[in-house]
UniProtKB/TrEMBL annotation:
This is Type IV toxin-antitoxin system AbiEi family antitoxin domain-containing protein. InterPro entries: AbiEi_N, DUF559. Residues 210-266 form the DUF559 domain. Pfam families: AbiEi_4 (PF13338), DUF559 (PF04480).
Amino acid sequence: MDPVEELRRRGGIARTRTLIAAGVSAYALRQAKAAGAVIRPRNGWVALRDDPTLAQLTAERGVLLSCVTLARARGLWVPDARGVHVAAPPHGSRISVPEGAVVHWAKPVVPRDPDAVEDDLRNALALIAQCQPFETALVIWESALNKGLVDRQALARLPLPAAAAAVLERARPFADSGLETIFIHRLGWLRLPMLPQAWVLGRRVDLLIGERLVIQIDGATHTGAQRTRDIEHDALLKLRGYHVLRFSYEQIMEHWEQVQAIVMEAIAQGLHLPQQ
């Protein structure tokens, strides 16, 4: 069996013993190393020379990609988080960690595969709840739930730390983007019904507050044909007695006070209430 092909199939890095158990011969591995196609980033591990990934770095150092770094790699909605976050065994103080990395030494909620260079997503979410502000953690958890990468009921049965249990209690799978999660979280003090991804007049709206106040959040994709459809639907909503407020990413993330003031004014005018 070709060790290079087997390494590619496994993501570019694996334990030596795992490859041998899969059918790669020790001779083939030696030949691949001699040819320069395979390197040994850490004792007991081999990796493709032409694939200098973060996973190789973690294998070299004896840690796993985790927390927000893993969440971003899995395509979750992650607000700006700098640096590489890795997980290490709770008692792994002798491990050499990457310079500038954020290292999490906490005990995992799910046992870690000894061959893995990336943490289990459930472990990463638990670390995120302890590492990040509550709002950021909630955004990432709801993104994972929305994408179906984790199951809420199954998470509830795990021995979650207190911070993770608190995030899970609030997290729901309905928000289609992190901006929707942020919007609902920041206006939660209003104690009003807020329904993300509500179906209104034949299309989904980002958020429905009360009975008639529609919140639409414009991302980078709100251009061209989609923008035209949005305008048409806005007009239909207004003709049927709904009130539509549109906000951009920049407004929500950079000028939240102004956004909140507009929403509060709309609520003060009763625009969220049923028509009389």
